[in-house]
Amino acid sequence: MSGPKALLESEDNWVTDIGRFVPGERVIFRGKDLFKELKEIRWTGLYFYGVTGRFFSERQLRLIEALWVLSVSYPDPRIWNNRVAALAGTARSNSPLAVSAATAVTEAIIYGYGAEKGAMEFLLRAQQQLDQGADLKALIMHEIKQRRKIFGYGRPKRVHAEIDERIAPILEVAHRLGLDQGRHLKLALEIDRLLANSRYPIRMTVAALNAALCADMELTSEEFVACSIPAYSSGMIPCYLDALEQPEGTLFPLRCSRIDYQGKPPRSWD
Q1: N or C: which terminal CB in the chain sees fewer CB atoms within 10 Å?
Q2: What is the pLDDT of residues 71-126, one digit of tens each?
Q3: Distance separating alpha carbons of residues 34 and 29, to the nearest angstrom
Q4: How many Cβ atoms sit within 10 Å of the Cβ of residue 236?
Q5: What's the pTM?
Q6: Nearest alpha-carbon partner for 205 in 116, 129, 76
Q7: How many whole angstroms separate alpha carbon 185 and alpha carbon 210?
Q8: Hey, where are the domains in the chain?
Q9: Running DSSP on this structure, what letter comes out for residue 224?
Q10: DSSP code for 268
C-alpha cells in the first residue's frame, strides 16, 4: 500500500510493537514492562534487546563489552572520528553535537561501520557457500578478484602494522568466556591462515574478528552495525573534553606555507 491512502491511514497512527510510553504509568519496551520485567537488566542487555528482540547471556554481554573496550576505545585525537569530536571541542561546541558528528563520520568504508558490516556479510556469505560444498580458497580468490579487497582483512598502509594488536586480547577474553568455538570465528581464523600463506599476505583485522564473534551470536549485519554505534563514543568523549581544555582553535593547525595551493592567484583588493 502506498500513496494518499497509506498517508491517510497513517495520520496520527503508527502501528508498532517496539514500545509505548504511558505517562505516569508505565513504559513498554518490546512487549516487556520496563519498570517491572526489565528493571534489573544491564544497560548493554537492554540495548541489544532493543536492537534484536532477543536476550543475551551474561557471558555474551561480557564479551560484547570486551569487544567495545578493546577494539575502539582509543582516545587518540588523530583517529578520524575522534578528530571530529576534538574539532568540536576546539571550536567550543557542545558534547552532544561533538559525538553526533563523530558518530556520523564513523560510517566509513575502510574503517568503522562500513568495514564491520562488509566483514560480517563476507563471513556469512562464505559460510553459506561452504555449507553448500564450495572451496574456501576459491571463495577467497573470487572475493579478491570481484571486490579487489576482503573486508576485515588488511590494514591501511598508513597503520604500518601487519598484525592487529587487538586480536590477541579479544581472543583471550573469548576463550576465557568459552565463546571461541563458533564456526564463524573458526572460518575467520582459517581465512587469515590461508591469506598469510598466499600471494596476498594480508592479515585479519579486528573488524573480521568482531564480526565473526557476533555472527556466532546470531546477529545479522544490520544488527551488528546498530549494536556497534555506542562503542566508539568511549574514545570520542575524552578527545572532545581534552580539546575543550586547550586554547581555542589550536587542534592540529597548519601554517599557510604547508598548503600546496594550485588554484587561481589570490584576489587583490587594491
Answers
A1: C
A2: 999 999 999 999 999 999 999 999 999 999 999 999 888 788 999 999 999 999 99
A3: 6
A4: 30
A5: 0.89
A6: 116
A7: 9
A8: 17-55, 56-249
A9: H
A10: P
